[in-house]
Amino acid sequence: MRRPLLLLAGPLLLTCALSACAKLETPHPELVTDGPHSVLVGQAIQLTVTTREATDDGYHWESEAPAIATVDDSGQVTGVGAGETTIKVTGASSRLEARHVVVVMGGLAGDGGVDPNQVPYYLAWSGSPHADTTAEAFSHWNEDGLVPASCARCHSSEGYIDFLGGDGSAPGRVDAPAPTQSVVRCETCHDSAASSLTAITFPSGKQVTGLGPEARCVVCHQGRAAGRDIDAQVADAGVVGEDTASPALGFTNIHYYPAGATLFASQAAGGYQYAEQVYDSRFRHVPSFDKCNECHDPHTTRVRWDACATCHPGVTDVTKAWDIRQIASRNQDYDGDHNRTEGIYYEIQGLRDRLLAAIQRYGAERARPLCYGNAHPYWFRDTNGDGTCNPAEATATNAFAGWTPRLQKAAYNYQLSRVDPGAFAHNAKYIIQLLHDSTQSLNTALSVPFDTSLLVRNDPGHFNGASKAARNWDSSETVQASCSRCHSGAQGYRFFVQYGVGQLVPETANGLECSTCHENFEPDYDVFVPAQTWLPDGKTVNLPGQDNLCANCHIGRASKATIDTALSAGGTPRFQNVHYLPAAGTREGTLARIGYEYPNKTYAGRLTHMGGVQCTSCHVPGKSNHTFRIQDAWNERCETCHADQSSAEQIRLVHLSDYDGDGNTAEPLEAEVEGMAARLLTAMRGVTNNGLCYNGDVNPYFFKDTDKNGTCSATESVSANAFAPFTPALVKAAHNYQLSKKDPGAWAHNFNYVGQLLYDSVEDLTGAAPLNMQRP
């Protein structure tokens, strides 16, 4: 009797799906080679070549390493010395090129077999899961005699080559069953079709391009299902409602070792991604250790633990790797167990346990108790209600039924987190988001919900891969040049600070990367400090210490200079957005002139602060575990001078006047700025006959207040209802108002400067000194 197909041996996934495939292209001119990929020293093999969508009257053959193999004008290859080389063939007329990898084996062993010492990487490969003929991945079909075409792609060399079109057939499908126990051989990965692969289409239909050798791995390490398959099944079944059970619904298994789906995250959409949520993109590690074949030895498939130890001292095997927790996540307790020091692996494990508990309570509340087992189909009826699957329960005849759409989605994500055992390294944050969202979804449907208030989904600030700052460009998968300096990891930033202009970056990022701010890694982590800060008008300044590093993204994108230039050019006055978190511009005051400074007025310069005037004086990287949040370093950095406050927002100190005119001289400075900004918005509404409203969450922020109630409703906050017309005075005032809103710490960064801007804007609009307000 056939054994059930369980987890495949080894760390490399072998999947069957035809829906997830390598890039398929429309016909185009190309050369296609055929023939063996291995030969013994002194023996010969014959290669052939075909020209497609073009014409050739002959071919030129060339060996890239004649000391290993030679080739004659007919394509006959002769082994010369042990090793691996590439045979290149060029069409005489078309000038098209193709390459064919050949492995030359040194000689025969005494028993007539291949001498492993003479075959490149033979010993490394022979001990790998790829070479294990007894593994379930290659022996599951032994009783049938053949691997079916639907599974041959990743369970045989012949099927893999057939799928990529390396055998001369059309790519994207396997045309015939393949032999059993046909392991991953040299020619599997070194066939010319595999070697030239640069793009992968995932089961979700999403395509990732620009890949290198790692594409060969992802062909099989992508899973055979995606979240959209669940939606399709629900739609086909005609099920209405998240909690409606139907016999037409069943468990969808992503399949085994889907490392590529985890790694590429929302680019692959392998998990079930809830419609109302935003998900991280591809996880970028560090240079030279960012691809499958850079972290895993391509022949043994083992992780290169010796290289990992450079940045992760003491990590010598996977159990040590479970303890890894990078500094950016050390303030986050994702699974809510009050442990922020455990490895990220254990955070995922904790969240997975919580999800399983929610799944089982959901089933129990509907009189359909279920349990999870390690054999197909994985989910079974928990007949004794003890929460575990015993051998009598974990049988196909006891498979769980009564699936609802909500339960399908949660079970799918639970399985994804289990069948990729390296998920904690491939893309921990994506898995955390999937587990978190699945748990929260189930919790909303429980009559006795769990307390999930301690669960954490996203990282703060610079490392929040689900934020708009990181994900705004996902629809195009490119970050335009005008935005890439601060929204594309290290690539766009490094280019901008050198040249003062942006470049198109062909991949979105999950926030800042280590290499954005650091020149190197363990043990020094030297900080990269640009030579200057670029102001919005193209001029540069050199700020003290390491502040150029922060200021190039926190200086703003509009200023007095850009506004004056636009107004002097004529045409219709338009609002200019200072952009988000322009803290360095606020702090520098009139030295940077990020605010609109009015003639015949004096403005505060750079902030002076006893605790230090550099960005990192208050936003301390090390003390805050790189969250850069004031509260995470408050006890060590701020309490000495601000012992009477428990948070930065309560600070008042030396500013004693009633600046916003509300009669309260004891409220925090943050409230004073909010009050002054409110006075300015009132003045702006006054000069527009109450025709203007503001919504700080929706671009372009200022809209027509059609009902004149002072707030922007959802129907008003649309681009088609953007406020117009702006006058020059209104452009200047709106800019200063936006600055006070988009720098939420303006009251701390430079209260005097932002207060002066708000006061002067009210005065300019109304033509008189603001009643009861005080100019700082």
UniProtKB/TrEMBL annotation:
Tell me yes or no: is Ribosomal protein among this UniProt entry's keywords.
no
Which terms are listed as keywords in the entry?
Answer: Signal
Query: What InterPro entries does the database record attribute to this sequence?
Result: Big_2, Invasin/intimin_cell_adhesion, Multihaem_cyt_sf
Any signal peptide, and if so, which residues? Answer: 1-22
The keyword Signal appears for this protein = yes
Q: Which Pfam families match?
A: Big_2
Which Gene3D superfamilies does this UniProt record tie to the protein? 2.60.40.1080, Flavocytochrome C3, Chain A, Hydroxylamine Oxidoreductase, Chain A, domain 1
State what protein this is by name.
BIG2 domain-containing protein
Q: Provide the species name.
A: Corallococcus exiguus
Question: Lineage in the entry?
Answer: Bacteria, Pseudomonadati, Myxococcota, Myxococcia, Myxococcales
